[in-house]
């Protein structure tokens, strides 16, 4: 497929997991991809993978919590590639599973700063380019936690992902007249190193506990990052031209039970 030919796509959290898989898929669809990540070496590895496969990509280092830095990176992307047509906000952390009565202010705030504030800062930085271009597609990264609390704990994560869902719907209505579609992909359990990345970025206080029960997936397995990336690519493309304000669950049936 070549659905993103001559389009510029920005992927935050593009150094690993769903973000890296989405960056590779958007490039395979013909897009020039700006791979943005907190870890410069990880971003560069994804960009190199894309270039080795014949695509176009450039790595950029940024912390999505830093509004000024995100703005600088987006300006650099526009200088390097031109106006942006697609944004996927893949940067995120899960937070530690800590009982709410033991949770510190940092345990709470650090997750919201990345998942919710970081999503908004990236969107805000990209919007002027999308408006100049005359439209485009924003895809945020939600979760099954945007809808349900399948297990106890993870209050900051679930609150942040619920916020991402409502932010997505609000932006979709706000910018529909300008031709900007805004949707959210909501993964269930996916094989990524999210927990390890979280521990390195936002060390937890309190007593971290294990889930009370293993997650049951009707399809009988966890998802692959590439399966989420395929939905991101669809939402980015003109195949989804009449879809906006939606949160698409990609969870193997978890929320159907």
TrEMBL record:
<dbReference type="InterPro" id="IPR036291">
    <property type="entry name" value="NAD(P)-bd_dom_sf"/>
</dbReference>
<dbReference type="InterPro" id="IPR002347">
    <property type="entry name" value="SDR_fam"/>
</dbReference>
<dbReference type="Pfam" id="PF13561">
    <property type="entry name" value="adh_short_C2"/>
</dbReference>
<comment type="similarity">
    <text>Belongs to the short-chain dehydrogenases/reductases (SDR) family.</text>
</comment>
<keyword id="KW-0560">Oxidoreductase</keyword>
<protein>
    <submittedName>
        <fullName>SDR family oxidoreductase</fullName>
    </submittedName>
</protein>
